Amino acid sequence: MGTILSCNKQLDIEQHGSLNYDTYYNTDEEAETATAYTMLTLRNLESTLFLTKNLLSDDFWAGGAQRNDAATLEKLNEFTFDSEHGNIKDLFSGYYSVIYYSNVAIHHVNPDTPVRKRVVAENRVLRAWAHFELATLWGNPPIVDHELEASEYAQGNSSDEELWSFLETELTEAIASDALAQKSDVNDKTTWQPTKQFAQALLGKVYLWQGKMAQAAQVLDEVIGSGLYALYDGEYEDLQRYDNAFNCEEMFTILRVDDPAAVWVNINTYRIGIHWKSDAMNLSGEFSSMGWGQCNPQKALYDAFVQAEGENGYRLGQSIKTVDQMAAVGNTIKDGMTLYGNEGLFMWKWRRLAGEAPGAGMGYADTNSPRYMRYAEVLLLAAEANLGSNQAKADEYFNMIRTRAKAATKSNVTLADIQLEKRCELCGEGSRFQDMLRWGIAADCLKDQGGQIPTLDSNGNVNYQQYNKDASKYGFKEGKHNRLPYPALETSQNVNIKQNPQW
User: Fold this and answer.
1) pLDDT computed for residue 368 by the predictor
2) Residue 201 and which of 123, 227, 271, 489 are 20 to 30 A apart at CA?
């Protein structure tokens, strides 16, 4: 017994590479690493987040090499997924990982200096962001506002009142703390950390989801009135290029380092996956030669652009290219090849250039920094919030977007106008599905999704195939898909969480 105790005592040493949260955050520099951990967790969630949310919308096809090449993505896109779906599980757990690291920072950083006060406020914003995402996708997830003890792991569902109250409190107190960073002017690139204006914009979304239009309008107007953000005034197609991060339009962007010596840190299969199917195409040398052809635009999205600005619209041409337009810039389909899940349309907005893969032969690396909010969304949220109370402001904000898009301005804009404009302006940025849920149009827009899947041949012809024979087994079902299922792993281990209806 004595020998065992002696050995155990010698083995009772601090694990190398781990942090003791109770003693680590003693300096400002150490405290700032707390936000870095939270944001790194959020950055690592990028692929799951954007693929899942975009493919749940009516804007994209799953794509890939052929049927079942990306079966996981097809199930999302066609609403044939269940509670065991990997993306659903990873997205759910990913949000709670962000919440965990936020809680570590909030409860272990002593806000006794301006820097540490800011770190705590930043993590309250990030914790609110993750809870907001969970609330708008799952409906009534557990609120986790502290590091859980083992006895607390089985958290139950929150109520709507508890959840929205928690979000309002988190954000209003973080904003009121006067600790969050702010840009010095419109060209300041301080968008790599949660700022006061990002927190306000997020609070505006929280109010909109509750139908609190006056409160939403007030806080969103404050963001606009700050004068610290503006619509990017260069070519629209360059807005989200890898070398154009942190421009005047970006509200919150997470940095990816352009470092050829650290390419494995920048592995980002999401960006490779959504690039054009390179082995089936002849691509100009300007573009990356590695792409998997996933997440191709639906014709319905193209038609929305045409409705919004005409078939020769400036923003349309810089967001989506047709087969003929692609050929005009040297990108063609190889003879005899086909592109699955493609209606003859290609996303230009997120085209992947050769320069985005640093390091010799490292085609998997990607330095494009993920953007989580930009000023255009704030303007459209504010336009919606001001409808019915200040039509002039709603028109003004709406037309700022239209003017940048070189489209005709409108007066007396309606919710339908804003819905259409937002679909075009923010396509591929992960907001569409949640918007449809909030507006109550998801069932109508998505009820037939998965019925017919397109394939494009080298002659430019589109053929449709029915893979799902039973209409009851695909497409958005009202009362079921309004909320995602809690992952089966969660419900099997947590007796206190109640599964969403019909799952």
Assistant:
1) 79
2) 271
Q: How confident is the model at residue 401 (pLDDT cuts 50, 70, 90)?
A: very high
The phi, psi pair for 140, rounded to 5°, reads -140, 55
pLDDT tens digits, residue range 415-433?
Answer: 999 999 999 999 999 999 9
- Cα separation, 389 vs 396, whole angstroms: 13
Indicate the SS3 state at residue 303: helix
**At a CB cut-off of 8 Å and minimum separation 6, what does 398 contact?**
379, 380, 383, 410, 413, 417, 418, 421
Q: What percent of the chain has pLDDT over 70?
A: 92
- By the 8 A CB rule, do 437 and 136 touch? yes
- Rounded to whole angstroms, the Cα distance separating 251 from 197 reads 8
Domain 28-180+471-503, CATH number (from 1.25.40.390, 3.10.129.10, 3.30.990.10, 3.40.980.10):
1.25.40.390
Q: Please report the sign of the dihedral spanned by the C-alpha atoms of residue 84, residue 86, residue 88, residue 91.
A: positive
Topology alike, domains 28-180+471-503 and 187-252+370-430: yes
The pLDDT of residue 123 is above 80: yes
Distance separating alpha carbons of residues 32 and 193, to the nearest angstrom: 11
If pLDDT is split at 50, 70 and 90, which confidence band does 5 have? very low
For the chain, the domains span 28-180+471-503, 187-252+370-430, 256-368
The CATH number of 187-252+370-430, from 1.10.3810.10, 1.25.40.390, 3.40.50.10170, 2.102.10.10, is: 1.25.40.390
Residue with structure tokens 């896109």?
77
pLDDT tens, position by position, 77-120: 999 999 999 999 999 999 999 999 999 999 999 999 999 999 99
Coil, helix or strand for 296? strand
Q: Which of 71, 135, 76 is CA-nearest to residue 474?
A: 76
Cβ atoms of 305 and 316 closer than 8 Å: yes
Residue 452: φ, ψ to 5°: -130, 130
> Residue 462 is inside which H or E element, if any?
strand 462-465
Spatial distance between the Cα atoms of 310 and 322, rounded to a whole number of angstroms: 14
